[in-house]
Amino acid sequence: MGRYDIRDRIAALDPERDHLEIYQLSSGREFPWDYTRALEFALFRTYCVPSISKLLTATGEFRERPQRRYDDTALLMAEMAAHGYDSERGRDALKVVNRAHGRYAISNDDMLYVLSTFVYDPIDWISRFGWRPLHPHEKSAAFHYYRAVGHRMGIKDIPDSYDEFADFKATFERRHFVFSPTNHEVGTYTVELFAAWFPAPLRPAVRLGVRGMLDDRMLTAFGFDPAPSWVGALATAGLKSRARALRFFPPRRESVLGRPKHSRTYPGYPAGYQPSDLGAPPPPADLPAEHLRSSRQGQGNIDMP
């Protein structure tokens, strides 16, 4: 198999009709490490929105269980990608996601924005650091894949086109990326989570490196001091060197999607686990009513699909 055979296979598929297959090939065989890193930063990016960080702070999820929340999100999204959102495991994963979100008073625009980061942040990351450019079909398929997931989550008013959704994301960030104390709190917990994955002597460098990867708008919204310019330059150079080296690697013959991975919260997942075993606990008893979905709001996306 040649290095670009999977890309050529993707080019022969229809990005709307075959979006799941294209997304599986792109995220599971061509760029699995890049998708993982990009989606980590995509979630990080959403914490720049005060309405999102305020809810996360109120639930205590990042204060009490940051690793579990990370693992739950990663594993549930992986279940959908590996097996398909309409498979038995994919539908079960969607139900867990919907029930977790359906307990809270989350605006449709906030949900729509989070969905948009899952489409465009990996595209932006791979455009900068991927070992090859994404084929246009990969970009379009990512849009159609997450649009289908979003519909099954009960998210309304998802734009009909790739460019329209990208415009929504850019406009939302211009309007809503502003500093708040809860942004800073959740952002700090997240940086500490990333640092905790490394031995203690390396953690100060990890904290600095994360700040070096954030753009000015994110730094302002989190209230973080910028890292020295050389930190971002060094990280960028390292990632681009990695990309150049990968061009000479043989293509991945099997997808990593759905394979057992090391999970700090669930050792040995997926053996012995079902998607229904994952997900956030019920809201804390003292959570202010403003954060809870009222009966007048209906059940929304709780029981979908």
UniProtKB/TrEMBL annotation:
InterPro entries: MPAB, MPAB/Lcp_cat_dom. It comes from the Bacteria. Residues 256-305 are annotated as: Disordered. Residues 295-305 have a biased composition (Polar residues). Residues 59-229 form the ER-bound oxygenase mpaB/mpaB'/Rubber oxygenase catalytic domain. This is Peptidase. Pfam families: MPAB_Lcp_cat (PF09995).
